[in-house]
Amino acid sequence: MRYYPDFVPSFAHEPTAENFAIRPIDGNVGEGVVALTDFAPGQLVFAFTGFFVSEITLFTLQVRPGLYLHDPYFMGKVLHRCDPNCDVDMEARTFHARKPIRAGDWVTMNYEQTEDQLFRAFRCHCGDTPCHDQAPGRLVVGRAPANAGVEEFDAVYANAEPGAYLHM
Fold first, then answer.
1. Mean pLDDT split into 10-residue runs, the chain, 168 residues
2. 80, 56, 81: which is closest to 68 by C-alpha?
3. Residue 122 belongs to what H/E stretch?
4. Is 24 within a domain?
5. pTM for this prediction
6. Which residue intervals of the chain are DSSP H helices?
């Protein structure tokens, strides 16, 4: 079973119900993605897609300042950890395991890898070493950008218009 609706063309490595479940977070404060299979470090976990938008939503990841990829079906439900089990590649639109992921583990990323600021700020209490214990985001007041010196994304995203569907 697919997580993306039928109007989204199928694509290689898209997440399916055979490999992942979307489950409520303790306290019913939202949803997160749980792996139903094991992944080794470096392994492709899933690919994702979405719609380009000009505003941050709860389900976006930042492509570059002022341009976000909105995916309320799957990628937008990946949870934050300061020491996550996945890294995201926004250009390739993929998540890769950075450490072992076992069936039953939450799939996580560090929001600071992509986000200058968040749609809804929160205090992080993940308990990882180190845990930043503050609302993640590269431009949080008093913190240096996590990606200082990184060049802008290439022409793949340079001409993207808000609302455009990102076809895999």
1. 96 97 85 97 97 90 90 93 92 96 95 76 73 63 39 38 38
2. 56
3. none
4. yes
5. 0.79
6. 155-158
Residue type at position 122: F
Q: Are 123 and 67 in contact (CB under 8 A)?
A: no
Tell me if 137 is assigned to some domain: no
Checking DSSP bridges between strand 31-35 and strand 20-24, what pairing results, if any? antiparallel
| Predicted local confidence at residue 140, as pLDDT | 54
Q: Which domain holds residue 31?
A: 1-114+158-168
Closest CA to 4 of 76, 63, 60: 76
| C-alpha span between 106 and 123 (Å, rounded) | 19
CATH number at residue 81: 2.170.270.10
- Where helices occur in 20-161 by DSSP H, the ranges are 155-158
